[in-house]
Amino acid sequence: GAEQRRPAPDTLKSTLTLRDPPAGRWLRCDAANVRGNGSSAPVRVALTAVPTRGPSPGLVGGVVGVVALICGAAATCVYITLRQKRDRRRLHCAAGLQGLVAGEPGSLDPTLPADEQAELLPYEARWEFPREDLILGRQLGAGAFGVVMKAEARGIVDDEDISTVAVKMVKRGADDAYLRALASELKILVHLGRHLNVVNLLGACTGRIMERELLVIVEYCPYGNLHNYLLRHRDGFVDQVDPRTGRMDATRGAAQLAAAEAAARRARMLLSSGESAYSMGGGSQQGSGDSGTMTAVTYCPTGGNCTSGGSSYDSGGAAVPLSPLPTDDSSSSGGPQPLWRTLYRCDTRAPSRVLCTADLLSWAYQVACGMQYLAQRKVLHGDLAARNVLLARDGIVKICDFGLARSMYKSDTYKKKGDGPLPIKWMALESIRDRIFSTQSDVWSFGVVMWELFSLGATPYPGMQPSEEFYNKLLSGYRMEHPPYAPRTVYDLMSACWETDPRRRPTFETLASEIGELLDNSTRERFERLIAYEQQKGGVGGECDYLAMLGSPDYGALTSPEEHVYVNTPQAMEGSRPMAPEPNTSTNPDPQPSTDYLNMSRPSTPGTSQVSFC
User: Fold this and answer.
1) Concatenated DSSP letters for 28-96?
2) Is 242 a catalytic residue?
3) Backbone phi, then psi, for 192, in 5-degree steps?
4) Sign of the four-CA dihedral 484, 486, 492, 493
5) Where does the Protein kinase domain lie (predicted)?
6) How many other C-beta atoms lie within 10 A of the C-beta of residue 73?
7) 168 a known binding residue?
8) Angle subtended by helix axes 439-454 and 357-376, to nearest 10
9) Per-10-residue mean pLDDT, the chain, length 614
10) Any idea of the CA torsion for 322, 324, 328, 329, to the nearest 10 degrees?
11) CA-wise closest residue to 211 among 91, 89, 301, 90
12) Nearest CA among 240, 182, 190 for reference residue 486
């Protein structure tokens, strides 16, 4: 269309806009109106490009370049910042891991027990064992964070070229809290000394602690833990308790035991004639009924040739599973196990033997002796149960996994997760209610262990779940009934262990003495000689007996009003320790711990039964 405008009264001007006009053509304009018509002179069409609105290519390129430069600089700054943080974190972690081994003995508090400050104990170089002389074999047991491997160690025992040992380690990718817990156990074992009824330390490999590999080498117990052993051998049990008197009678079942022993002896002879010698990576050892082969493997805690699927592989492809083993615990385990427990399985093909009451008494006596030694050395167990007692050769039992429970209770990781199962049925009243763990709470747990033994591995408090109702029943005086195979005297000792007032419970020295009186003289004297020999063979070594210098885990000492608690000190100078002692101004022996400690809330008033179980 034409746009019209009047520049003057006698003139009419029209503008015609042509879309895509033919370039180079001649055009003429013809006009007509009432006054007439006319034609213009021919006009040649010449096209002129009209500039479009928008940035030029050069401007666009410049802007893109500036933006790319800014983004690159920002990415570089972020990368450098993250790398610096990662490097600082690595240095901090490395310093912390290295400190696990070095310890800080100058900061030990003589008023606190060892389990409260095990990380500060020094490691002694005499326990370091060459990693190249240790060949790992198959898995013996596993827990939520720990793995135990069977291994051979060359020259770790003075009178043996090659020794079968057990090696404890932390699973690949486990939290630092678990590595610290294992390091704390190592420190306690270093300073504990030897005892017949404790799983003794043989050595450790700490050279790769910066790579999160810590190997703790301990004695090998081929028959696994007592709980599983009782379940496997409960059939055919010979009850030697006279039902009329409730006392032990060694003559009961003598013929049955003699016949069973003769059959077992013949089976061992047949087994040893064909399979007694077994190879472990080049060495050989004669076993009493044990058989099998072991392939050397390399444990990789952070990668290397290891797969991510829970196994460790050597160059030859021999796999070692690093996941928990299936066990026969489902029928009487009482639910999931605490995170720190390592469930040992039996590792022998020796013929089954018939159990009798004398065996149960012997094991109870030995556990009492082992716990007596721990109490004398001021070491708290914290999780005494039949699963934490291992059976070695010749009927010797050994206590293991002590100190791990308290390490995990104090762990921030354990508190934050809030879902770790706890051994409530083995815990003393004050441990459930007030978070107080002591030698006396270990005595309570020992009473439960005796009940496990004389019930042949039954679950404590059968048919009851660890709940608030369960706790209230204990508080009101309920205790487990007489187990079916316990002499009356033994049940009386159990009941004494379950006294509500910790100070009224018997000591482990008293328990060992009274249970020992139930054994025949020859058996008791044999154990006494073995215990004395073991302690002479490897007593407390090192330049200083640190455990003797520390506080006792006795209940009276832990609840003393004069005890010190540690609080933050805002005036602390840079580089100094962030914790300092301050006198406790409260008479409450439990100075307000975290409410999520032990996965349960604290009662509003000490002594009340308002305990919440998660």
Assistant:
1) --EEEETTEEEEPPPEE----PPPPSS--HHHHHHHHHHHHHHHHHHHHHHHHHHHHHHHHHHHHHHHH
2) no
3) -75, -40
4) negative
5) 134-519
6) 10
7) yes
8) 170
9) 53 68 73 78 66 65 85 89 70 57 84 87 93 94 84 92 95 82 91 95 92 93 94 91 88 77 71 46 36 41 38 33 38 46 57 84 98 95 94 94 62 44 88 91 97 97 91 95 96 97 97 96 94 82 81 81 40 37 38 35 39 43
10) 150
11) 301
12) 240
The whole-angstrom separation of Cα 49 and Cα 23 is 12
Give SS3 for 225.
Answer: strand
**Could you give all domains of the chain from N- to C-terminal order, each with its CATH number?**
114-262+277-534 (1.10.510.10), 568-613 (no CATH)
DSSP state of 342: -
At 21, is the secondary structure helix, strand, or coil? coil
> Choosing from 383, 401, 442, 554, which is the catalytic residue?
383
Q: State the Cα–Cα distance between residues 105 and 62, nearest whole angstrom.
A: 65
Residue type, 192: L
**Cα–Cα dist 4/58, whole Å:** 41
C-alpha–C-alpha distance, residues 63 and 57, integer Å: 10
Place of tokens 């180079």: 24
